[in-house]
Structure to design on (679 residues):
């Protein structure tokens, strides 16, 4: 899942202040799961903004809509008319959704209401953790399904740094040392010998590519 | 250009090596380095120059090493992978060798959020072990990562760090083995205050025969005050200052705390000399380089050996 | 302190808390209080509180059953966190955080519901009228 958090209200106000009629568009997938950009959050933000502008004596019309995914064209179809009916759109999608929506509306401002954060999991209600970097070359096999690139603060590939103490990371003692997790898991699975190897440097071209990456699947094309 | 590191020869000839650390200034005045060179001259075999330690911007380690060389002191260039990608790291290895620097200490580096540039991009393109392997490849095979040949190979004596006090302990030895496998010639350890734990670590090192493959230099840090001891114990990641040490410093009047710290150093050094596999010491007197000559002298480690083959010791 | 007779309050309460039904409570509370029973205080959404203020209430309040007495175990604890979250939003909006608040019922609550509601109204009165209710709007050009 892609996680996100809402921008400060003042930043959002500054973006939409010049407009009289703004669409607040939620996204019902990842950002709804992380309680940042779903229908509920759209309603909260709309209500907050209406009050905030009212306190300033500013009238603004805010319209609300939430679609299943802002990053997929068939769902963006549902935003076609509402977007055109407003002067600007405040999107509560991740960065991918904001851009996908904007691309379809060259004549409308589309603003991000969220700060997109990371690929992660919902560990428990109200707690989301980063655990994937999208490096393009998954190495979880070697590391007992704990990614040192995403979960070690120094992206170490060959074991914990000298700051690992009592299973905690030196950078943030609230967080587990990813390498302690790796060692514990591989130890329990009797596969610690996998860590004897000196792993080669990461091939970052798999992540960075030649600029933005793309996936082409002809069999999926119409 | 000299072809063999002085430190390498000191160790090769079986001497108990002594290195010390010198931190570059937060400014561009070369005299700071020259002054530290004068303080350390004759007391140590080589001087490590830290690389923006704790993520605080300082004069570049390479420039400070060049200044030490000019002053006739053998430098150990510390390089962290935090700030440079593999292109810059390899390029700097070549540049360092061209300047006459022949010892490199390959480190991960403290996380950038600890320093005064917390918004910096942490590079960590290579990790310290991959960096060691890269320098070894450059030196022994005269190629860079990916296999492209060099026109000349950098004759680096390759160092790496070990922290016997971090967790998990068994993996600390595995990690040391990996550093050796990657190509480390010498190891400098984290400051040793917890001797029992260090001895346990060295037993594991010997059990795997690692002491015969690498020269381990034990880390020594003189404690200046009880405040410093507590700070290291509580605030510095990866440091193990046992309560007994803090109590001991605390047990003497404030004006005598430095002396007590130096006394602990002496005891630690003598203990290290007894541990099989420990081939020298690395003194990290943080912003207290003046203490180094006294520590080395009182430990009976003077004069430092002159070794043949390098036209006389740089620091001798 | 000068009493503001116009003060209005919206009260959300767990429907398991009172044996009186909503209509009875409304009759007791008077016209300045709007009452909304919810299945459990843990089901309170920050949006309910925001909408109450946006809709004209000077304050919005949540009645929470005592710690440990929640039929759904921890609804009341969750409710406290949501009210705290809403208060942070109010600050961003530019409203006083106290305009939403919690009234904790004690384990052996002696006050009749009417008294509790009027106490909450009195607390709301101390805040004075919501700035939202006096701000005139100007049209953008």
């Amino acid at each position: 899942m892609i996680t996100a958090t809402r921008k400060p209200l003042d930043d959002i106000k500054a973006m939409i202040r010049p407009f009289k009629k703004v669409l607040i568009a939620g996204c019902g997938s990842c950002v709804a799961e992380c309680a940042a950009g779903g229908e509920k959050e759209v309603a909260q933000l709309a209500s907050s903004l209406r009050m905030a502008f009212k306190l300033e004596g500013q009238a603004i019309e805010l319209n609300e809509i939430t679609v299943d995914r802002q990053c997929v064209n068939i769902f963006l179809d549902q935003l076609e008319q509402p977007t055109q009916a407003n002067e600007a759109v405040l999107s509560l999608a991740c960065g991918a959704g904001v851009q996908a929506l904007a691309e379809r509306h060259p004549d409308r401002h589309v603003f991000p209401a969220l700060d997109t954060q990371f690929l992660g999991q919902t560990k428990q209600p109200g707690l989301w953790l980063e655990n994937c970097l999208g490096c393009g070359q998954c190495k979880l096999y070697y590391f007992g399904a704990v990614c040192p690139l995403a979960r070690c603060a120094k992206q170490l590939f060959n074991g914990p740094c000298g700051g690992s103490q009592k299973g905690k990371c030196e950078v943030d003692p609230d967080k587990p040392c990813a390498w302690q997790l790796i060692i514990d898991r591989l130890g329990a699975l009797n596969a610690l010998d996998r860590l004897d190897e000196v792993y080669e440097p990461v091939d970052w071209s798999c992540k960075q590519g030649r600029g933005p990456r793309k996936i082409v699947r002809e069999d999926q094309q119409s | 250009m000299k072809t063999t590191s002085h430190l390498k020869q000191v160790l090769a000839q079986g001497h108990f090596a002594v290195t010390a650390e010198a931190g570059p200034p937060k400014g561009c005045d070369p005299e700071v380095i020259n002054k530290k060179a004068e303080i350390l001259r004759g007391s140590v075999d080589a001087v490590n120059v830290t690389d923006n330690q704790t993520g605080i911007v300082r004069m570049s380690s390479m420039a400070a090493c060049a200044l030490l060389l000019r002053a006739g002191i053998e430098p150990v260039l510390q390089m962290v992978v935090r700030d440079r990608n593999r292109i810059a790291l390899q390029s700097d290895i070549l540049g360092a060798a061209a300047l006459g620097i022949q010892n490199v200490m390959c480190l991960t580096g403290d996380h950038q959020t600890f320093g005064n540039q917390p918004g910096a991009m942490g590079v960590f393109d290579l990790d310290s072990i991959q960096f060691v392997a890269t320098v070894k490849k450059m030196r022994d095979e005269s190629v860079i990562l990916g296999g492209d040949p060099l026109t000349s190979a950098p004759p680096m004596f390759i160092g790496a760090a070990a922290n016997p006090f971090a967790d998990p302990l068994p993996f600390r030895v595995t990690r040391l083995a990996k550093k050796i496998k990657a190509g480390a010639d010498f190891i400098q350890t984290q400051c040793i205050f917890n001797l029992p734990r260090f001895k346990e670590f060295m037993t594991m090192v010997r059990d795997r025969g690692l002491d015969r493959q690498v020269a381990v230099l034990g880390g020594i840090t003189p404690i200046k005050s009880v405040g410093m001891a507590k700070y290291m114990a509580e605030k510095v990641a990866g440091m193990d200052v046992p309560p007994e040490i803090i109590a001991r410093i605390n047990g003497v009047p404030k004006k005598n705390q430095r002396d007590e710290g130096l006394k602990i150093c002496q005891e630690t050094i003598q203990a290290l000399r007894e541990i099989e596999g420990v081939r020298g010491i690395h003194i990290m007197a943080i912003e207290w380089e003046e203490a180094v000559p006294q520590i080395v002298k009182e430990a009976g480690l003077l004069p430092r050996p002159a070794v043949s083959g390098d036209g006389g010791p740089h620091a001798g | 302190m000068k009493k503001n007779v116009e003060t209005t309050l919206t009260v959300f309460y767990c429907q398991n808390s009172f044996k009186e039904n909503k209509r009875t409570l409304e009759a007791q509370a008077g016209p300045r209080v709007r009452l909304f029973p919810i299945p459990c205080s843990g089901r309170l959404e920050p949006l309910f509180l925001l909408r109450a203020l946006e809709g004209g209430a000077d304050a919005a309040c949540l009645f929470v059953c005592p710690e440990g007495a929640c039929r759904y175990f921890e609804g009341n604890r969750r409710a406290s966190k949501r009210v705290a979250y809403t208060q942070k939003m109010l600050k961003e909006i530019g409203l006083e955080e106290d305009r939403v608040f919690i009234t904790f019922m004690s384990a052996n609550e002696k006050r009749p519901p009417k008294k509790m509601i009027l106490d909450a109204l009195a607390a709301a009165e101390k805040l004075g009228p919501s700035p939202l209710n006096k701000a005139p709007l100007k049209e953008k050009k």
